[in-house]
Amino acid sequence: MRVFKTRTIATDACKKGRVMIGGAPVKPSRTIKPGDVIDVRKPPITYTFRVTALSQGRLGAKLVPEYLENLTPPSQYELLEVTRISGFVDRRKGLGRPTKREGREISRFREDAYADNFFLDWEDDDDEGEE
Question: 121 falls in which pLDDT band (50, 70, 90)?
Fold first, then answer.
């Protein structure tokens, strides 16, 4: 009911265990009833809804509050705001190329901070022990 943009995305979320009713993961075909409390994990936050009534068909966004009650605690919304403000971009491993900035940081790390200093210090320590 308008929690996800498309039915396909909603199905994928169910299959990945991101949708729960009563603390148990649900299948996409799970039938709901009034009074069910649904937890939807959309990183970085978890939304919580209570089903107040069932709809016979598709409905407009303005009618959603008649069927779902939003129980999401304010702390979850604060977490979302903190994430937005910090500028943190959640990019999973292997998902796209590094940005220019990340590439420069990786190069700097490889060249200056790690490779040269590590081996030079290691060779100096070796010489001290022989004398």
Answer: low
